[in-house]
Amino acid sequence: MQCQDCGKLCLRSLLYSSFGGSDIAVDAAFEPIYWPVDNMIRWYEVVFVVLVIVLTSSIVAIAYLHLSHGNGMSWDPLPWVTAHSASVMAV
Predict the structure, then answer these.
(1) I need a surface site. Which of 46, 70, 72, 86 has the fewest CB within 10 A?
(2) pLDDT digits (tens, 9 = 90+) for 15-46
């Protein structure tokens, strides 16, 4: 056996895998696509949480301003509180 044949045999024995096939090749091909998604997902989480907080707060603020100061009319929360308390007590 020549040295070159021995090198080929050694390389094939190190790289041989009975599990190798098209699935492994597809996984290896898509690895560059998965890597940025895995690394950027933590930033997406932060952005979406901040967006939910900001949008919910803006809706609450708009509703509060509309009900309390809309068209120059003042809004008294006492009837709402008493009606809600009465309906809770009735249950």
Answers:
(1) 72
(2) 776 666 677 777 888 888 888 888 888 888 88
Tokens representing 85 are: 């308390």
**Whole-structure pTM over 0.70, yes or no?**
no
Residue entry with tokens 């998604």: 37
Alpha helices in the chain (DSSP H): 3-15, 22-69, 78-90
**Mean pLDDT throughout 43-56?**
90
Q: How far apart are CA 75 and CA 66, in angstroms?
A: 9
C-alpha span between 49 and 47 (Å, rounded): 6
Q: How far apart are CA 39 and CA 16, in angstroms?
A: 31
